[in-house]
Here is the input.
Amino acid sequence: MTDLGLKATGLKKVFGGLTAVDNVSLEVKRGVLHALIGPNGAGKSTLINLLSGDLVPTSGSIYLDQREIVGCSPDQRSRLGLGRIYQQTSIFPSFTALENCRLAAQSRQPHALNPFRRAQAYPSVMREAERALNIVGLLERARAVAGTLSHGEQRQLDIAMSLATRPKVLLLDEPLAGMGAEESVSMVALLRNLTSEHAVLLVEHDMDAVFALSGVLTVMVNGCTLATGTPDQIRASPEVQRAYLGSGRHG
Amino acid sequence: MLFVLGAACVALIPLTGAVFYMQLLSKIMILAIFAMSLDLLVGAGLVSLGHAAFFGVAGYVIVLLSPKYQAASLWLTLPAAMIISAALALLIGTLVLRTSGIYFIMVTLAFGQMLYYLFHDTKLGGGSDGIYLYVKPELKLAGSRLLDLEKPLHFYYFVFGIMLAVYFLLRRVFASPFGRALAGLSVNERRMLSLGFPALNYKLGAFVLSGALAGLAGYLSACQFGFVSPEILSWHYSATVLMLLIFGGIGRLYGAIVGAFAYVLLQEILANQAVFGAMAKHWQLGMGAVIVLVVMFLPSGLTSLLDRFGRVRLAQQSDD
Amino acid sequence: MEFFVQLLNGIQYGLLLFLLASGLTLIFGIMGVLNLAHGSFYMIGAYLAFWLARGTGSMWIAIPLELAIVCVLGFILEAVFFSRLYHRNHLHQVLFSFGLILVFEDLRSILFGDDVHGVPVPELLSRSIPLTSNLSYPVYRLFISGTCLVVAAGMYVVIQKTKIGMAIRAGSTNREMVESLGINIRTIYRWVFAFGVTLAAFAGMIAAPVSSVYPGMGGQILIVCFVVVVIGGIGSIKGAMVAALLIGIVDTVGQVLVPEFSGVAIYLLMAALLLWRPQGLFRVA
Here is the structure.
């Protein structure tokens, strides 16, 4: 099994007169967390949307496991093994945590369209859901109504939902946003855990976490890739320092 | 519990022998079936102002299929009407489900009106005058007549049975994987797509099932009144059913039943000359005022009042 | 020549539709509210024209008076009701405005009865322009078209050239930008709403001498208005104009050429468009 999860070449997205993403290429491999950083407005969200299928690129290619996916819709990409979480927490607040994951896992089961049997009556689906909750550490909260969970727990649940679909690649859009110190520590540990099994692309502003977790960093400014390299390389790069990091800009 | 009590009452009413009440309740129950079909749709996040089209088409089907002075066969005509409604829902759904939100509301309204004009302007079904059903259909088995819908008592229990069947069927659907997916779609479609659900297929499925059930209600209604006219396809009617759905409460099927009762009873009161005299003719004024008040102050409907006594909502069913 | 007359009628109808559709699309584009009762304002405008023309004896006095009445009504409705519905889901908005429709229809029935009434064309405009030896075209219809064009031009100027216009073009997606222009957002919403419904009523007023006043006129025009907005694209005034003219001409000419299917024609047009471009001809934001 190849370790190459996701590969994008020459991605470009033009909106009217604005080029939001300009000739960006990157690779995301299993075992090496790839972080995407850059100032606001650099085009990171647009790039993630291009990768997940929420937006169609003006030009360029995207390969998931060597398969071209530019023509695929978001749900098709998910079924091919791409998982993503959005910047805004997107859980289902009135369902329990377990039900959230069960629903996510259901998407992979062939009888998902069955209108007659009770949804909870499929043991394999329930097992997938519990497994996902366990990975993120929310198993004891399985029966809690999702809306009552803390902000950090909800972000974890969001990730659990994506995990319940057994993705090969994970696109994580600012999972640490809005988290307190303690919650951040758990999340960082979770992310580190996920890296060994999945190809992870992380968009984040928390520089401490980014430098602690990533094996590869891509810095984006004004829609273009400014630099790609290991954390040390990026930290040492003068252009990056000028454009983004500066001194005292750490998380 | 309340539900069982209510069902028992409804089941026993015919013992009083009062035909008027049987007919009134039949009308309410048919409306409840229509409302439940719409509850399925609204629960999936789809607000359709053209749903009466499926109701009306089924009504026209039974009238057009019935020989002029003979009873048509229930075995043949009921499935035929439902299949035609479902097929129409499939056709229209494929077109309208390409839109969402406000566009969806508007295009469903427009398609509903298209069908209205089709029946109103052409000679397809007697034009704006409508057509009569002279003899109601019958259920025959091995030569003997099991069900004679001409008799109010038979009709009453037939409708009651169907209403209960639809209720329990939809409860199962809500709790099934399909139903849970619909619930998720109504909250956050984008997230569902990112999890790998082909949203369009689910919505189309809900649309077709809902259309078929609306057809069922339309069939029964045509049987009860013995008459169909283009008005039963109008968006006015679609909106009225949405209205009674919100009276009762969305997402908890029994809300549709409660809403149907509330609406018809309210209408009977407002249109009662003994109470309102000359204003009784203008009962829609009062009805409009009521809907305005309900939307502003009690948008979760009458059944939400029951919630305050700790009932578990159908749509929020969690693992248990 | 017959065809030319029908074409003119179609354009006139289209321009009237534009007034209605632009009001609806503005209200939706900026505040995100779907107001089914928009058609009722058309009816209110027409009936007010009928009533005030009878009362004051002159359309010229009646019009500004009616505009003021409807504007105030719009203000009140927005302040008391609609402003609370902006963040509610569409179902609530739909049902609320449906309730309004029922109330307005019955009020109309109580105040004016259910008969059809004619509204006299003002003296000044009651002549006809001769086109051929036995065909002439009513000046009043040209007046309608002309007035609609003037209003459209006025809207164009405001939207393209003023601060408020910029706020409108930014649409409801850009609250911060609007507020940074120093304009109070609640006030904008109130004015936009009042303006939108007044436009609808104005359309009803000027159309009344041509269409007469009758029960159900609001509902009829509402649906067509919806088709225009869907085809033109929600939030787009330009789209509303293009679509309105298209529908106006297709509907009017269609009624002459193929009377049986004319009712269905515009819906077929809409279905065709949905297959090609589900978001309408011109999309905003």
Notes: Strands of chain B lie at 131-132, 138-141, 144-148, 227-228. Residues 22-233 of chain B form one domain. Chain B has a mean pLDDT of 86. The interface with chain A takes residues 172-173, 175-181, 183-184, 187-188, 190-199, 201-202, 205, 209, 315-316, 318-320 of chain B (CB under 8 Å).
